[in-house]
Amino acid sequence: MINWSIFLAAFGSTGIEFLEVVAIAYAIGSSGYVREAIWGSLVGFIVVLAVAIALGNGLQFLPLQPLQILIGSLLLWFGWGWAKKSVRRLASGRRAGWIDEQVLEKEGITLDQESPGFSKLNFLIMTKSVALEALEIVVIVITLGLATSAWSEAIAGTGLALILSLVVVIFLHQYLLKLPEVLIKLGAGVMLSAMGTFWLGEGIGLEFPLDEFFILILITFYGFTAGISVYWLKNQLVT
After folding, report:
1. Over the stretch 127-177, which tens digit does the pLDDT of each residue have?
2. Residue 16 and residue 38: Cα distance in Å, rounded?
3. DSSP string covering 106-131, please?
4. Would you say 162 and 35 are in contact if contact means Cβ atoms under 8 Å apart?
5. pTM of this structure
6. Could you give the residue ranges of the DSSP H alpha helices within the chain?
7. In sequence order, what DSSP letters do the residues of 201-232 get, joined into one string?
8. How many Å apart are CA 186 and CA 182, to the nearest integer?
9. Does the pLDDT at position 15 exceed 80?
């Protein structure tokens, strides 16, 4: 039976991260630095993949209770951070920098325009951008997989997110501005927060009614709280 909650959590949370990486790579490539964008992306992913293998192999030997606490804390940290940022953006009407036509400028990236041939600086800029986002992706996928053993759903959701990100940015970039990226990130943040709360609670010995179905109640609660927060912040900004 497919664990749809893990699939959707992996797809939503990693999708935004992949979109940001691909958008930056596309912008750097469009600026005339295609080789730097490609090689920087590959090196960044390879480095993080090596870290992921070491991290995954190490975490799987932890006892169940400390592992649940660690997984819950990580997911809650990611989810809360994403939800808080998304609520503020929705309230103020702002969007993520990578969704703008001037991606590099909005993300505070300044390319080296002077070095002839292959630019090592632009290569390092791309590598760093990919590595930072990929590390978040890896941590999320590993924690989702370890918590539920639904590795196939976590990996499938991540793979689909990568493919759709490439398609959207490369072939449908003119429609990128219509993408509700803030709502997607808020939804992912709410889901990760709910799952993190559940597994952290189990790790410290709490017993939830309805077992894992209680996650749906947590998602509803966090979603309602986020909606109220957006409404309240909007009124604060108006007054």
Report:
1. 988 888 888 888 888 888 877 778 888 889 999 998 988 888 888 777 777
2. 19
3. HTT-----S--SS-HHHHHHHHHHHH
4. no
5. 0.77
6. 4-30, 34-59, 64-92, 103-106, 120-148, 151-171, 181-203, 214-238
7. HHHTT---TTGGGHHHHHHHHHHHHHHHHHHH
8. 6
9. yes
